Amino acid sequence: MLSDFSRDTKTFALSLGYSNTDSGTSTYQSYSLGARYRALDWLQLTANVPYTDIDGRDVVWDQPAPGVDRRNVFEYSNAGLGDVIVMGWVDCLYPFCDEKPPKEEDDIDLTIEGTGDPLVYFGVGLKLETGDDDEFDRTKYNFDRSKAVTGELSETDGILPSRLQLGTGTTDILLGMIYQQRFGRFTPSLGLSVQMGGGENSVGYERSDRVSWAAGGKYIIWQPDCDRQFYASAGLSGTTMTSRDIDHSEDTTLLGSQERGRVRGTRGTYNFYNLGLGYDINEDITISGSYVLPINDPDEDSEYSFDSSYSVSLQFRF
Questions:
Q1: 91 Cβ contact partners less than 8 Å away, ≥ 6 residues apart
Q2: How confident is the model over 72-92, as pLDDT tens digits?
Q3: What pTM was estimated for this model as a whole?
Q4: For residue 263, what are the domain limits?
Q5: Nearest Cα to 285, choosing from 2, 16, 20?
Q6: Domains: count for the chain
Q7: How far apart are the C-alpha atoms of 157 and 143, rounded to whole Å?
């Protein structure tokens, strides 16, 4: 979480997280293990390992006869390791920060009065291709084969849609920037990240680049001592897919094979409201939760189309 990026945090932190996202046609549940390590005073390393459970439904229309439209519904279940993310974060303002005296245990207002130093972190990392990108469904395969009347096999017949896969099947470059500064009880924050697609995966699917942003802040509601505080957070966030994804796999028809081409629902900007609560139980343990609602009504085929999403996290610092 953004609030953990500060110059007085402990050397190592572990977090356990759970999130649930419901789109009406699909439910995504993710269990994650996160880690942060302060390698140097100005360098922090982070990693996130997700385990994802997806239950989804896909609707495909076809024409078994001229003028006859048929609605085909396929139910999918997919679970396993997702794509692991590793990042390195550099404290860009560290050379300019002043040395501060250690906190006094009886100075209760030390963290909620005055103005803190600005924090600006720049991050570089990778999203690794650890999640499967080629999950196969026999019912969908039989349906695809029934349409390929020439009998020519296609490599991706029966492959689940990309939004129902555990991973993208590519190693992507990640860039990030975080700014935050405390003003009394209130700490505003800004974040920007770029995910550069790693090209075509093993089933011929190529994802576009993603640009994401977040703006918001947290407010300390209650702080009885230096180690404990209860806070609320709110903000806005968004993701822009810079172009449409491309499906290079082929459909087989009487006229021969044809590349499926650009994918519907994979371009545009999707914005969200973000609300959260957190409690520092002591200097070593934090519990937090968040709730996300979409602002716009995106294409139902998009991976960013959902009714609501919530998450909870438990963090330990050492």
A1: 7, 41, 42, 43, 44, 119, 120, 121
A2: 888 889 999 999 999 999 999
A3: 0.85
A4: 2-317
A5: 16
A6: 1
A7: 9
